[in-house]
Amino acid sequence: RCIGKYLYEYGLTSQTAVTLDTLSGIKILKLHVEDGKVNTVTVDMGRPSDMKEQPIEANGQKFTGTTLSMGNPHLVIFVEDIKDINLESIGPKLENHPLFPDRINVEFAQMLDHGKIRMRVWERGSRITQACGTGACATAVAAVLHGLAGRKCDIIMDGGTVTIEWEEATGHILMTGPATKVFDGEMEG
């Protein structure tokens, strides 16, 4: 989303549809522009794959999660109260569980009112992060698979909220969220 905002607002493109080649494949960005500024961006995140229910035990706790791929592996676990989860403790145990020899991203999620989902993420190789786009997509897919949410829902993360829509016609996941400029800087070479 930030790359789309940067390209448009720095005059590197005048297009509001941008194709971006990433490590997890080509992404199509739709820039939502108001008064010459990009406010939100919708990213076509592709199709989820390899979806299955997964019982797992770690740290003496038993969970049932959903594993799936959004171009990278995710384990989504729904809980009654996300505040009861010590992500700092359980995150690395699940990330490095023997079931996942290449490690896995871990999302804990709690259903809120009106199709909103509160999610926290332990990203493989990065620890706790404020947000994860593919993790938000994985969480929405798992919610749909378990009948907990409709095909469009808001995922509320520590770093902000995105709207995820799982298109029935195409099977693609669309992620819409803000893009905010925080600062400019220069690097000395």
Give the topology.
Blueprint: H1 2-9, E1 17-22, E2 25-34, E3 37-44, E4 49-58, E5 61-69, E6 73-78, H2 87-95, E7 105-111, E8 116-123, E9 127-129, H3 133-145, E10 152-157, E11 160-166, E12 173-178
Parallel strand pairs: 6-7, 8-10
Antiparallel strand pairs: 1-2, 2-3, 3-12, 4-5, 5-6, 7-8, 8-9, 10-11, 11-12
SS class: alpha+beta
State the separation between the terminal residues, measured CA to CA.
Answer: 27 Å
Percent helix, as a range, is 10-25%
Shape: globular
Question: Unreliable stretches, pLDDT < 50, 5 or more residues?
Answer: none
Series of H and E elements: HEEEEEEHEEEHEEE
Residue-averaged pLDDT, rounded?
A: 94
The major beta sheet can be summarized as:
12 strands, mixed
How many individual β-strands? 12
Round the Cα radius of gyration to an integer and report it.
Answer: 17 Å
Total helical segments = 3
Strand content: over 45%
Q: Can you characterise this structure?
A:
The protein is α+β, with helices and mostly antiparallel strands and 189 residues long. The protein is globular, with a radius of gyration of 17 Å. The chain contains three helices and twelve strands.
